[in-house]
Amino acid sequence: MLQASAPRVLRGDSRVCLWPVPVVSCLVVIATFASAVAQQAPAKKADQPAATAKDAPEPKAEPAVVPQDVSAPNEAQLKGMVDASEETKSNVDEVFKDPKTEAALVNTFKELRPPNPPLDLVGNPNDLSRIRGWAGGSGQADKAFLQRYVDYWTAELTSHRNIKALLDPPSQPKNASEASRNAAAARAIDRAATALIDPLTTAMATNPRNTAFLNAYVPILISTLPKLLDNHFYARIQAMIVLGMTGSPDALDIYIKQLDDPEQSVWVKLWAARGITNAAQGGRGTLTDTARAIKAGQSLASFLDRETGAPWPVRMRVVEAIGALRIPTPLVSGKAEMVNAAMKLLSDPKERIEVRSQAAWSLGMMKIAPPLQGYNTNLAAYAIGRAAADLGDQIVETHSSEGSQKAQQLTSMLLYQVYPALAGDPAVQGSGASKAQGADKAVVDQIVNQVKAVAAAAVRLSQAAGTTIEARKKDLSARVADLKATLDKNTPKDRRLVAGGAEYPDAAR
User: Lower CB count within 10 Å: N or C terminus of the chain?
Assistant: First the structure.
């Protein structure tokens, strides 16, 4: 029971910025990055998306939608992040400029019309109470009213006034009344996104899940929100967060379209990948439309092949979605696009360890079976073992006597991603490279046992205090050395993951 007392996967490392764009947009992207490192730890809570601070409860895994994480700052958090920006500039270690996002920041996109007859969802709390009551299981939802509700908030998301209040807030309002109006407009994007998401999280958190409400509400979101995906950046990112949270198989075509669109912002594509992961329930579910699932996997793999310069959290979320689908290859062609996409990231020693760890998990989740002939399980296990050794080294390096959030985050990756990639995830039937056909069982089992020893030592170090810290660090270093020795003795000669496929020389370094 390695995970019983182990640290959960932490949200952290938001040292990335979109440049040059307005500060608020940059901070929204930073918050998305912060959420992107949160991984497969069970029963974790989701951060509230779209510029709101409240925690949204995540429902238990079951055959339905499982939103896993969403994060964006509220107004107070934005101010705090701006105040802290001068102190953290030296910590920014990745700057990404997305011209597609810049193009979407021009405030000239078409405004959507509010519903007719109009609603007053800001001034009339009774209407909001009706929605919350339906979502919570009180009464049957009125679909016509739900449509007007969604239309109202989508109009708010595309409002030029609301967007301008965020892009270019007036520094000197003429009077208190104007200041109040400006403040309300600046909060409107936050309020609209929150209003669209709250019914989802409420219905998903009921016990049992309020499927009747979701069956009424989600189709309206799926039919309405795509109108925002070619609108202003604020509108499209908030719309994609909501659509990604639904995780509905009926939204797969939307997710695929965004991934394939060469003009779409990379941040929208991140949430398209999250939607695919949620639709597949993080690997715990099976999409019944196999052809569409394969198409989604191909779009994800194509994205990684095409957009090699995408920021690391985006690469990580895309490869996560590939693993959640658990489809290594299209059933007809036999080409191994998906499994090779994961292997390419895993075996690259220059790739960030967060991405490699997620790629390891994805590779371990794949259902390896014909027509994927000649699958090199030994190479997969070896590459996963190398990632585990690198994690162990980094845990030792980053752990300090005061404790280290980074070391705990790395330990969580080792426990919830890399080790299950070898040994399997109990919640995902048939997972784990050690269970794949064609493996040299003696060699693979040896790697599994060594990685388990490294993981156990990392947990002991995370629990250490005072004078025991240095001894635990030495113990972890020794376990890593044992793992490396095992890997060195069992370096695969064949560096192709599949017969006739690409070679991965760095995987067998």
Answer: N
